[in-house]
Amino acid sequence: MDGSLVLIQLLNGLQLGVLLFLLASGLSLTFGIMDFVNLAHGSLYMIGAYICATLAYWTGSFFLGILLAIPLTAFAGFIIEIGVIRHLYPRDHLDHVLATFGLILCFDTLVQIFWGVEGIAVQLPKWLDGQVELFNGIIFPTYRLLIIITGLFIAAGLYWLVNHTRLGMLIRAGASNRTMVSALGIDIKTLFTGVFALGAVLAGVAGMLISPITEASIGMGNEIIITAFVVIIIGGIGSMKGAFIAALLIGLIDTFGRSFLDDIFKIFMSAEAAETAAPAISAMLIYILMAIVLSFKPQGLFPPKVR
Amino acid sequence: MAEPILSIQGLHKSFGGVTATDNVHLDVLDGETHAVIGPNGAGKTTLISQLSGALKPDAGRILFEGNNIVGQPAHKRSHIGLARSFQITSVFMEMTVLDNVALAVQAHDGHSFRFWTPARASKNLTDPAMACLKQVGLESRANDTASVMSHGERRQLEIAMALATKPKLLLLDEPMAGMGPDESARMVETLKSLSGKTMLLVEHDMDAVFALADRISVLVYGQVIATGTPDEVRADENVRHAYLGEAA
Amino acid sequence: MANLETTQNSQMPDNWTSLFTATGWANLILLVGLALVPTIAYYTGHPFWIDISTRLVILAIAAVSLNLVLGYGGMISFGHAAFLGIGAYAVGVPAYHATYGEFEAIASYNGFFQFGLAIAVAALFALITGAICLRTKGVHFIMITMAFGQMVYFAIVSIETYGGDDGLVIDTRSEFPGLDLSNPIALYALCFISLLVVLYIVHRLVNSRFGMVIQGAKGNAERMNAIGFNAYIYQLTAYVISGAICGYAGALLGNFTTFISPEMMDWSRSGELMFMVILGGAAYLLGPVFGAVAFILLEEILSGFTLYWHLPFGIILILSVLFVKGGMSGLLSRLGKRDG
Predict the structure, then answer these.
(1) Do C213 and B90 touch (CB under 8 A)?
(2) Does the domain made of A15-296 have the CATH classification 1.20.1530?
(3) CA–CA separation, B223 and B218 (whole Å)
(4) Which of A10, C127, C176, C280 is most enclosed, with most CB atoms within 10 A?
(5) Binding-face residues of C in 239-278 toward A, CB within 8 A
(6) What is the DSSP letter of A2?
(7) What is the share, in percent, of chain C residues with pLDDT greater than 70?
(8) Tell me, what's the pLDDT at A179?
(9) Chain A interface includes C33 (CB < 8 A)
(10) Which among B114, B137, B166 is the end of a domain?
């Protein structure tokens, strides 16, 4: 366990963390403002990845792919909101869960029909497809570094949007006082559609960013969405600040657990036992963390003030 | 009618910057009907919620029969003899009227880790439940589902459920809320017929309060500004100024 | 009419006349059908039907267990597939060690041991996770049950010994004296009788004092506390009982498929169980059984038409949430009212 490896895993953890934040922030927005539970949020992550992969292939440029895929993902979110989600706001959470579960089945199958069962790889431009030396001989993949920077920029943008804009004011007011927003003469339907589309874009961008590393594949959203749930549960459902801190925390803990837990276990158990136990424990680590947090703070670390 | 069964001492509760309960001192004597009145937002429901255990006060003591009950969970308070009715009707809508009351009886008839015998067949539950329904005049509706009852009837049912827990002190949070004149009159009759029970009654309806209460406390902005018999309160300058002034 | 109400409220006919209502007849036809159709099909040379029916009945048991917490108790658990998986691995793991050695303490083909282990481990898992989940409400509860379910999934995936992602083949089924589970009819009989027993247990439970408490706590826990119940402890007990029953169903499932993998506890399996409960009508004793029948039939029919049967299935699910209230039992009772 040398220093440079720790530093590299720190960066890997950050990279996972910002991706989780992109997913969790959208979830948190839709829950905080519309009181809506969206299981199909992971589908938007997948859709973003597939659209981007296809466009990148057609245009021959990954960046052009992303640029074109963003409005398309927003449009997908827009259609889903108007077609299905909107009618579910007055319903209870059970109906939300069932209907969005239905949406997942639809999207997974539609992707299978259009793109086939095999995943699609995404080609990175040459200048990104390498490694950079950060300092003291620490070498890190250029593209992963770019993900971290992009993610932090988006997080800063969201912070600005929620705290310093008129839209953000509406968003914060909507979360605490729905009737007040309507009384101010703001079309709450449009606001909700806009927020949902924003969440869709955030999830979609996360999917686009990860696609060159993992390729776009069916079900890619269904695994990570649970981790995103764990993030917002730990952070406090509806809190953007909580989502950000918890996302980085989960990203780091998951990454460190997977890389170093066996070494730590070897300190106090046999090498053989450590190699059996470590993968199982590290797979459960974030859930154990969630259980511990909930035991002390059932509402998460940063529960929103209202509600 | 001498010893206070409930003694509230220096109770304090605030939400953010708003003080809902401000250094409240209040005694409820054994056997009396004590009403708490006050304008909207005076902190009446907040006070009841702290008494029943649904809210935790920031400071102060609540002595019930001499013991401080602050910090005890709601279900324990029910077992020492505090019963609460809710301002917003809170009955089990999908159950029958009788089942609603029987459930309240069951809560005070040992533990409920009884997995096999049908609860509805148990005379130990249904007989006392029927008795409580008779007290509020709902015995003919026993087998109807709560969801088909009128608003006034559900309020009566709330009282029956509270009675079923054999309380030493009934906390009634606006039992007349949202009722028409006929329903209100019926509720007043029901509550009158319970005379002898100790009651802390929070109510808007002045006619009802003056018809029922032995003593009245007036709550304004979280503070008790006067306590006394209906006549004393009626005559109180502060009260006339702060509250009755608008109505009288 | 009045009889119908009784059936709806008390979940099972209290007297014989109430059997002869729309719901009562449907219940009877369902159970007799489940007993006869596969048996007749098997002896007339259509063994395919007994396979489907066995799967159906096992899923029905799991759905009935979920209905106890979801339908009656209002606890929306999205992690019940984990209990199925735990039950299945409680058969597979002892059998694996009995075949390949190591861990002699649990190595066994004994059915009583394996099924007992399935129930015990599932109940323990329900106790630990339920104690945490039930401290929260509403959407927290949904997501946390889901997360704990996924935790088991990943834990099994990471254990190479039992095949990890690839799963584990059960070479030898659970051994019971006088009962050969490799005979499809014997296995089906065990599953069907188990379903009847589980239905009876749940019927007694929900009508007992305990059942009244968990139904009262559904959606109105504050009221329960005010009349003097500690709702939490009763809800936790219901959750543990439900988990134990579902673990038992998992042990049956392991014996039926003889191949177990983490895939069987993926969260979409939990979603399917939930679908069965809701489709059949929550808080109605036989609802989940109807739901399981509908689910299996849909799956068989749709997958006969198209490889992409999840698409129409998903659409049906969305439409039924948007337009059908109260599930099939709701429909049935509305039909019954029209008749009467």
Answers:
(1) no
(2) no
(3) 8
(4) C280
(5) 267-268, 271, 274-275, 278
(6) -
(7) 89
(8) 63
(9) no
(10) B166
